[in-house]
Amino acid sequence: MKKKVIIIIIAVAVLCAAALAVAVFLNDGENENNTDSGVAASQQDFDLPYALPNGCVITEIKSYNGPFVEDGSGEEKTNVTAIVIKNDTGKNFQYIDFNLKFEGADKDYNFKITTLFDNSSMTVLESNAADFISDKITHADISQSIEFASQPTVHPQELEISVGDGMMNVKNISGEDINGNIYVYYKIADGDDWFGGITYRSAVSGLKNGELKQISTSHFKSETCKVVFTEYDK
Description:
Blueprint: H1 2-36, E1 50-51, E2 57-68, E3 75-87, E4 93-102, E5 109-116, E6 120-125, E7 137-147, E8 159-164, E9 167-172, E10 178-190, E11 193-207, E12 212-216, E13 225-232
Parallel strand pairs: 6-11
Antiparallel strand pairs: 1-2, 2-3, 3-6, 4-5, 4-7, 8-9, 9-12, 10-11, 10-13
């Protein structure tokens, strides 16, 4: 009888060990797939600084009071969730869209970033001005991360841009006519860093060589805004 009991115990132990090995294998496989697909939720350590799959790092999570810039309205808000994100990846990002979930929250918090240059930091407000509830991340995933196809530039050899509050002058100094639209992109500066995931855009339609046109830019403030790049079709 004792021999039968011992044999049964050994058999159960073997089955348990096999089940544990299968479970470990499946968990490892799930983590690998999540990493490949760009989902950060498979990572177990959500402490700050927290690295997103594209290499950018969230360094701070805080409550923000002030004008809500992300929708262009400038409406005064209180207790908005804000993050500080740093890019030291060697890449210039044109657009990043990602979600975070925080401890105690029952929904995802969305953040959208445009024009995040290498070696820069940016304060970004939650896209829908969601209330700050916690600085503890419990889940993270990134849905889009798009780099600039070419190095962004203000085209200093082709365009001369001067700015003032609510306006900017754009002059064609290229030596030839520019017949297509000219787009001037600008952001709010925060010292050496940036404030707001939003990038504003103003446009002028065509410039003869040497011609200057003035653009009305309601969001541009000469003390806080900087032109970050331009685009145009000849």
